[in-house]
Write the structure tokens for this entry.
Amino acid sequence: MRFPEYFQNSEKPVVSFELFPPKTDVGMRTIKEKLLPNLARHRPSYITVTYGAMGSTQGKTLEIASLIKNEFALESACHLTCVGSSRVDLDDTLSKIRDAGISNIVALRGDPPKGSDAFVATQDGFSNADQLVSHIRATEPDGLPVGLAVAGYPEKHIEAPNLDTDIQNLKRKVDAGADIVITQLFYDNSFYFDFVDKARAAGIRVPIVAGLMPILSASQIQRITSMCGATLPTDLAAKLKTAIDDDGKAEVIGIDQCIAQAAQLLENGAPGIHFYVLNKHTHMDEIINALPL
């Protein structure tokens, strides 16, 4: 199934996961033998697979996405970014994705390479995700469209001057052919609901899926939120301060927070939750089992 089909007349919220390819053979075995079997028990609608900076681990991305679809009988999606890729490179990757039977793609601009202050397109490449979406739509075979997801930023993209400008950037991606929006992580639901309202006012009608990252480490989430511009609510930040050197305590705090956050989102009409699982599963067992799904 393609992304939009999950949101058409769905009686239940759409739950999905995101994982990343490991850099080692041991890590790949862990994904195949432990992570995926445990995540698959929850029967997510789909699992998306990222890849590393400058396209590193991209081959493993397709390997894992194929494994999810063919061995675990779940839909999967490959991430695809503009970083370090010309149109020829992208077309080659798209061909491999199609040949593997993958029906969905998460189309992103991608982050600037480490050490760079700004994104610079590769020669004969693309500068923005809307260009990538347009290219995918223009080159896909007749009758074989893929499902396309793009990113949305409830607190705006860190490079955008303001949220209104960022909403217009999102509209260009949707108008180019995106089927759904998956948001960047956030911890204050008011940002999500305000973002959805602004997106609808701008004419964006596709499903806007809430992206949540359960907290597993206080220091880790402080680093991640500082990089992407997400806000930690004052009360949550205070709790995490008491667990700065205790990942076990931070995980308990994170599980409770994520359950409450996800439940409120679903109660108030979010069409789905996309969990950034950080390649772990035990915390997801607790979170999924506690939600009214």
